[in-house]
Request: fold
Amino acid sequence: MARFRRNRDPEGRMTLGAHLRELRRRTVISVLAIIVGAVVGAMRYQAIYDQLTHPIRALAASKRGGAIASVNFALVTDPFSVFITVSLFVGLLVSSPVWLYQIWAFIVPGLTKKEKRLSMAFVGAAVPLFILGCYLAYAVLPRAVETLLSFAPDSASNILATSDYLSFVVKLILAFGAAFLLPVFLVGMNAVGVLPSRVMIKGWRVAVFLCFLFTAIMTPTPDPWMMILMALPMVALYFLAVGIAWLIDRRRAKRDASLGWLSVPDDQASAL
Reply:
């Protein structure tokens, strides 16, 4: 049976065709995992829909003077499209361990064993980081909806298209989930030699500014404390990624120094 197995380069090098086949295989696995998760979301559709639309019902309870607040299925196809949207959204959340691992596994082959252990220890935090980002966005959702709709006059009704409202909710939650994955991908780029830690350290001011800018855009509330509350974890995660990248660079430098004699020309004497 061993002769039918593909030979793997011990250093992780792959041809372009092998890379494309690997990308296809991991993409198929990720898509199948999302579909399985979407089935779970379809089974719990009603409960999840009620949770996501709860801020609108809470706002409706506070309306006065005959004004109402509700979500509306304007088109005959809207109920089905909303059902698919919610199911796929749940599928992304449920299958996050699978597709996050597939993304990382596509990057990993070129790393040394020590770098794999160090990096995989950090990528193990990717799933809880993603879930944490999604949870924080869900926690701030009622305040965001209340603030955005508060600009309407008290006597006005807020009748929202369900597809538009849920599109806003899904984008908000997934955007924060993806933002909390930033440290994982920074460490990944460092581990493959694309992003040195010194570059990350030099750009810390820009990174902090972008974190606050992102939260200012994604948390549309006039309360600055909410923006700070959402931005500080992202800033802390960025500096955590810088620290881990520095450790990887330090170990890589020590390894390269110990093998420096290999790069000495044939006509020169080495330290050995």
